[in-house]
Structure formats: C-alpha cells, structure tokens
Design goal:
It contains 22 helices and two strands. By secondary structure, the protein is mainly α. About 17% of the residues have low confidence.
Length: 501
Amino acid sequence: MLTVLGFVMIATFLTLIMTKKMSPMTSLILIPALFCVIAGQGSHLGEYVLEGIGELAPTAAMLMFAIIFFGVMIDVGLFDPIVRGILRFCKADPARVVLGTAVLAAIVSLDGDGSTTFMITVSAMLPLYLRLKMSVLTMTMVTATANGVMNTVPWGGPTARAATALKLDAGDIFVPMVPALAIGLLSVFALAWILGLRERRRLGLLTESGPASDTVTTTEDEEAGAETRDRTPAGVGAGSRTGSAGPTATRTATGPAAASGSGGTATPDLAKPGTGGDSGDGPAEDGEGGTLDPNRPTLRPKLFWFNALLTLAVLVTLVAQLLPIPVIFMFGAALALTVNFPHMKQQRERIAAHADNVLNVSGMVFAAAVFTGVLTGTGMVEEMAKTLVGAVPDSLGPHMALITGLLSIPFTYFMSNDGFYFGIVPILAEAGAQHGVSPLEIARASLIAQPLHMSSPLVPAVYVLVGMAKVEFGDHTRATVKWAVMVSLVILAAALLLGIA
C-alpha cells in the first residue's frame, strides 16, 4: 500500500509541476499532505513536517547567506574579469557560449557546493544569453549537468555519504572513479557543443565588430527554439529576429541595413547589457542585463583584492570543512556587507536587492521539507526501496553494481542524497555481498546518477539556478532530464568497461 502511494505521490507531483497546474512550492506542500492523510497517518503530519524542516533548516540558512554573499561579490564587480574573459573566448558564437558555460560550471563546481556554482555561472553567463537571444534553458541544463558530474568530489557530499554509510574510505571510492567521471565530463562538453551548434543554426553566427555574413534562420518548430519560445520569459531566446509572422523567417545579413528593417546590424550590442540586437524587446529585467554595467554604483575596484581573498578564504574553509557551511556563509556575508557597504542604508539596499532570491529559495527548501518529511516519516521510501530491491531476480545478483547504477538514476532524483545513501545503498550493498559484489563497487555505482540528481525537485540549489535564470522549474526539468540521464549512462558504461564498478 505504502509503495503504491509513494510512487503515485511522486508521479502526481511531477505531473502537476510539469503541466504547470500547480507551482513547485504549493505542490511540495499540498500533495504530500494529501497522501499522508490517504495513508491514514494524518495525525502525524505535523510531526513529519517538523522533522523535515529540522533536517533542512541548515540548508536554508546556508542558501540564504550564500545568496547574499555571492550577490554582494557580483555587485562589487569581483566576477567581472571572468565574464570579460568568457566574452572574449565566446566571440558572440552561440556554440562557444554554451561550451563556455559548461567549462565555467565545471571549474566552479570544484568547491563542492551547487548553489555557489549556480550563482556564479548564471551571473556570468545570463547577460550574454539574453543579449544573443539564446535559450536560457540550455544554460540551466548544461550548468546543472556539469555540476552534477563534479558533485562527486569527496568534499561535495555524495561520496562522503556513501563512505559513511558503508564504512569505507572516500578516497578508495572516488579515485578509481576519476577516469569514468572524466569521460562523463567530456560527454557534457560534447553535449554543450552540440546544443551550441543547434543554437548557432537557430540564431546564426553573430560578431561583436560587425554583421555576420551567414544566413540567419529562425524556425518555430525547431525543437530547441519551439520549446524555448513557449517556456522562457520575454526576451529570452524567443521570437523571430525579423518580425516575420510566418513559421519560418530567413534573413541574410550582408550589411548594416540588412537587419530587421531597422537600419541596424545583425549584431547585438555586447557593450550594453540588456539590449538584444534587433528584437525590440527593450532592456532586460533588473539584475540580469546590468551585471556587467561598468558604471554601476555598487562597484568597489579599490576593494577587489580584499573581496578576492575573502571569497578564497570562504571556499578554502568550505572545502576543508573547518566550520559548518551555514556558519561560513553567515560570517562571509556579514564581512562582505560591512567592508564593502559600511553605511546601514547601503547594507539594507543590498539585502533588499537580493531579497527575492532569498525568499524564493528559502521557501522552496522548507516546502521540500514537507515532501521529504512525509515520504520518510510514513515509511513510503523504505517500502519503495524494499519493493524494488526485492524485484531483482537472484540470477542478477552478481551484477548488483550495474543494478545499483541503474537504480540510482530514479532514486537520486526522487530522494534526497541522505535518504538514498543512508537508506537504500546499505540494502543494495547487503544484497550484493550475498553474491560476492564488494561494497566498494556498490558505492562507486551509487555515484552514477549525480548529473540527474542536481536537477531533482528535492535539491534546494536547483531553485537558485532556475530562480536566478527566471525559468520555470517544470521547463528546466523537461529540458534537462533526458540529457542528464544520458550523461549518467555514459558514466555507468565507462565504469563498467574500465572495470571500476
């Protein structure tokens, strides 16, 4: 009974958010509450919810102060040189832009914190996507998937949990997995390049110095373009660049007068955030296009090295685990605000500027606490795991590493990492041990699905990603799941071929 209710609850939740019948926040609260009552445990609902909130409260605090800390670092211009370097590499070429997004996300992910990766990557790349009219969903998909692969570093969480749950050394789990994970990361880069080429075909090759000589084609029913137009905010990878009312519009940019009948060029103005070439959409929303404004009043060039050293200290302390992560970001945010904006009025303005992100993400974390609290408290998770593991035939016992890798794909998407590694992985390891499969093989196989896990509705950091990019979570899910599953399968295949898992 609980097994069926668990699967139906998850299916109901995903259906409602992907069809946009309910928002993720309300779905995370109301759907589990309804199924808790149906399971006959309505009298314990408050208890389950408070347990879930207690478990996720540190995460909410961490995200709240991390958003403020990195928001201030963005305001004062710490990451502007990185953005300028990426702009020089990308040269307004959509293929390079998407590849640059994947590379940047992978590099920043070395700190082991998803929310940090998402804030830095989106802040650096979103203005460029907006100006080039590229699909923002492509950015969120590539960023989340690259971060998922890198999330397997020993200090990132999953590896440490697997080691703790099975009483193994994290290095013994991670180091042999490096070749397979490297292949997985290369597959993300290859995917980014392919999606970038698709964007290039949709938009054309644009340049900073003058109009392109290629033919720019916009096709409404082209897969990426069609999906993006329906689901992204105004001015984000949307609309025909020529104003044609027909489904397909083709324009050859041959000179300054060739662009959209406006007398301009086919080249978006990369020096002016918020402009989108000839789309006529007007300025981007506050906080998007203004990130690179060289004259914004919040810049603190004289404090650049202080801010760089403070950020480095925060990341080193985070990786070394010298303090709990929420405490690190609380102190970091307080120092950043005090030094960069010494007057109370300035501090209030900076906090207010990032209040929307803080409220949205914190709200989503506590809403997710209801979902995880009910799923765990009612026993649904445990029953679902027993059912799936019990369905594995004895003849497949020697292949438990492969089975663990495959099962990790749905389990890490529908469960928190804590629930999966402390609740499910020990069961799989015990079943494998009965057939001569070592716990190390099970632990390595359990890391396979992290590229998909980072887009799970139960991962608080993903709401930082979609919130800052201003896309719907359901749209991000549709754009990401198939590619993230593919990358996970690539890692699994590489691990099996290399004899790692």
